[in-house]
């Protein structure tokens, strides 16, 4: 396909110039169907990568407002990791800068802002159980869940019946499936 170059992955002991072990995870802008303004990933107080690099965006990505950046999430081909910290955050009561960061997170959650991540040039897709017997999948996943004044959960928040008011999705679980293609002449 135009614009897509295949990537060969291999185990760490077999990596070379044509076969890599690290699987890149990129973060992109956050958007919402309830708000007009998209935000760059770094607008919110999320874990960030120290290098702040990303792939070169093509004209279409720039026109559509994508802002692809490297992430702190590190994956290796054929290396199952149970869990790992990307970073740790702590907020001090009474600190005005921390209060501002928390208010931004609450604002993003209440307007159902969605993360958009990219792994191996493919968008991360999130699937969840909605109402009984219905499964929904979408590109991107919410920052968290918010219970509106009506008291009735909406969107992805219907999956959590224990929801009280506000829930921040701070744990990410990625399941990667790689497809192998062979082309013969």
Q: What does this 3D model show about the protein?
A:
- This protein is of the alpha+beta class and 185 residues long.
- It has a domain at 22-82 and 96-143.
- The chain is 11% helix and 18% strand.
- It has 2 helices and 12 strands, in the order E-E-H-E-E-H-E-E-E-E-E-E-E-E.
- The strands form 5 sheets. It has a 4-stranded antiparallel β-sheet with strand order 3-2-6-7, with no helix packed on it.
- Strand 6 (117-119) and strand 7 form a beta hairpin.
- The two termini are 18 Å apart.
- The model is unreliable at 180-185 (pLDDT under 50).
The quaternary state of the protein chains shown equals: single chain
- Going across the biggest sheet, name each strand in turn: 3-2-6-7
**What integer is the average pLDDT?**
78
Unreliable parts? 180-185
Strand content: 15-25%
Sheet with most strands:
4 strands, antiparallel
What is the terminal-to-terminal distance? Answer: 18 Å
Q: What radius of gyration results from the CA coordinates?
A: 19 Å
Helix content: 10-25%
Helices, by number, come to: 2
List how many beta strands DSSP finds.
12
Helix and strand composition category = alpha+beta
Quick one: overall form? globular
H/E series: EEHEEHEEEEEEEE
Family: Belongs to the nonaspanin (TM9SF) (TC 9.A.2) family.
Keywords: Membrane, Signal, Transmembrane, Transmembrane helix
Subcellular location: Membrane
GO cellular component, one term: membrane
